[in-house]
């Protein structure tokens, strides 16, 4: 059964990027640059179960500005991705990217079909993950909580989801990170 999972790293105070849209605070944590660490192993294990993914345009442009199409292909390979934007963005023809806009429900349907039994990864940002939660289409939130506070930036999940909707199902240290998994119940 396909699960829709918001899997992201976050600061301890709930930001996924700093006020300058930078992830340097995350990338400078040594554990991330070494493929042999538990952190990297956990990311590979998650990724192996993913059959489709989506992201907002800020995240897309962050990846493209930094890594370009080659970096995208290294990271995502053949995996089909959907990018939410109101603008006319373009992608290298080798990238399996579909640009979409508006309601997340039909996009979720297309991603479920493409995932063929594997999971859907909502890469971020927080507002997009919130749109999936609003529609009752988010099954899990999986966090790598970095030992960092930022004081501001792009919010992890700018929604009010109370304890009746979030249930902690896993919590363990992974290198310097706290790995937390929550199941998300649909809105009533
Ligand atoms: N810590 C991590 O692991 C992690 C993970 C993911 C991302 N990030 C970073 O966190 C930041 C995320 O930024 P963010 O939360 O501001 O943005 P985001 O979700 O990446 O992008 C926001 C943009 O997505 C588009 N969008 C969202 N919902 C839409 C919809 N339903 N229909 C059409 N377009 C829609 C809009 O783009 P248009 O303006 O183009 O219309 C909106 O401005 C980035 O810097 C990213 O690199 C960090």
Give the oligomeric state: single chain
**Helix share, percent:** 25-40%
Strand order, largest beta sheet: 5-4-3-6-1-7-10-9
Largest sheet: 8 strands, mixed
* Ends distance: 22 Å
Low-confidence stretches: none
Strand tally is: 10
Average of pLDDT: 96
Number of helices: 5
Strand content: 25-35%
Report the bound ligands by name, code or SMILES: NADP nicotinamide-adenine-dinucleotide phosphate
- SS-derived structural category: alpha/beta
Question: Tags for this entry?
Answer:
alpha/beta, 188 residues, eight-stranded mixed sheet
Detailed description of the structure:
This protein is of the alpha/beta class. The chain has five helices and ten strands, in the order ββααβαββαβαββββ. The protein has helices spanning 24-27, 38-48, 57-76, 104-115, 126-134, and strands at residues 4-11, 15-17, 50-56, 81-84, 97-100, 119-124, 140-146, 154-155, 166-174, 177-184. The strands form two sheets. It has an eight-stranded mixed beta sheet with strand order 5-4-3-6-1-7-10-9, sandwiched between helices. A two-stranded antiparallel sheet has the order 2-8. Helix 3 links the parallel strand 3 (50-56) and strand 4. The longest helix is centred in the middle third of the chain and has 20 residues, at 57-76. The two termini are 22 Å apart. The mean pLDDT is 96. Bound molecules: NADP nicotinamide-adenine-dinucleotide phosphate (NAP). Residues 8-9, 16-17, 21, 23, 26, 55-59, 62, 84-87, 101-102, 123-128, 131, 154 line the site of NADP nicotinamide-adenine-dinucleotide phosphate (NAP). NADP nicotinamide-adenine-dinucleotide phosphate is lined by residues 8-9, 16-17, 21, 23, 26, 55-59, 62, 84-87, 101-102, 123-128, 131, 154.
């Amino acid at each position: 059964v396909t699960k829709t999972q918001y899997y992201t790293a976050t600061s301890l105070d709930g930001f996924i990027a700093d006020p300058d849209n930078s992830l340097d605070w995350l990338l400078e944590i040594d554990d991330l640059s070494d493929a042999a660490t538990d952190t990297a192993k956990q990311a590979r294990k998650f990724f192996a179960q993913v059959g489709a993914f989506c992201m907002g345009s800020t995240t897309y442009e962050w990846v493209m500005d930094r890594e370009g199409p080659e970096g995208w292909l290294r990271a995502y390979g053949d995996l089909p991705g959907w990018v939410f934007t109101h603008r006319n963005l373009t992608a290298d023809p080798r990238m399996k990217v579909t640009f979409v806009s508006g309601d997340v429900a039909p996009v979720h349907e297309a991603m479920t079909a493409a995932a063929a039994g594997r999971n859907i990864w909502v890469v971020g940002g927080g507002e997009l993950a919130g749109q999936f939660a609003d529609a009752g289409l988010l099954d899990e939130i999986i966090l790598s909580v970095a030992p960092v506070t930022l004081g501001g930036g792009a919010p992890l999940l700018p929604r009010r989801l109370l304890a009746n909707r979030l249930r902690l199902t896993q919590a363990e240290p992974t290198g310097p990170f706290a790995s937390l998994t929550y199941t998300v119940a649909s809105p009533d």
